[in-house]
Design brief:
Elements lengths: L6 H14 L8 H10 L5 H8 L3 H15 L26 E5 L5 E5 L3 H13 L2
Length: about 130
C-alpha cells in the first residue's frame, strides 16, 4: 500500500525527479496527477510554493484537464446578487469572517465590531 499523498511527500518526490532529470524535461504525468489531486485540499498558493511550480503552470494544466474531460472553460460568470440595504443588515456572526476564492486565495477579517462588519459587507455587496 502506498503512503498517503501529502504536500511534503510530493515535494520530496519532485526534488528527486529534479535531481535525476535530463536538462529541462517536462514534469511526468504522474506528478501532475498528484499535484492536481492536492488542490482538492490545499490552496493553489500552498501547492505552488511547496512544490516550486508556478501558478501559471498549474492553471494551464487545469485548463488542459478540463478540455480533455469535455468541460467547457468559463472565464467569467456573472452572478446576480440580491440588493442589501445597510440599515437592514443584522450581523450576529461573531468576530471572524473568512472569504475564499475559487483560485485558493483567501481573506480573513477579524476583530471588527458588528457595525463595522455590517458597513464593510454592505459596501462589498453594493460594488458587485
Amino acid at each position: 500500500m502506498s503512503p498517503p499523498l501529502t504536500l511534503q511527500s510530493l515535494s520530496v518526490e519532485l526534488d528527486e525527479w529534479r535531481k535525476n532529470r535530463v536538462k529541462q524535461g517536462r514534469l511526468p504525468d504522474n506528478i501532475w496527477t498528484k499535484t492536481l489531486k492536492l488542490l482538492e485540499n490545499h490552496s493553489m498558493t500552498q501547492v505552488s510554493r511547496e512544490l516550486r511550480i508556478s501558478h501559471e503552470q498549474i492553471r494551464n494544466k487545469l485548463k488542459k484537464q478540463d478540455v480533455s474531460r469535455g468541460v467547457p472553460f468559463t472565464p467569467f460568470v456573472e452572478m446576480k446578487s440580491p440588493s442589501i440595504k445597510h440599515e437592514k443588515i443584522d450581523i450576529t456572526l461573531g468576530n471572524r469572517v473568512e472569504l475564499k476564492r475559487a483560485d485558493g486565495a483567501s481573506m480573513i477579517i477579524e476583530h471588527l465590531s458588528d457595525n463595522a462588519l455590517s458597513i464593510l459587507l454592505a459596501k462589498f455587496m453594493r460594488d458587485l
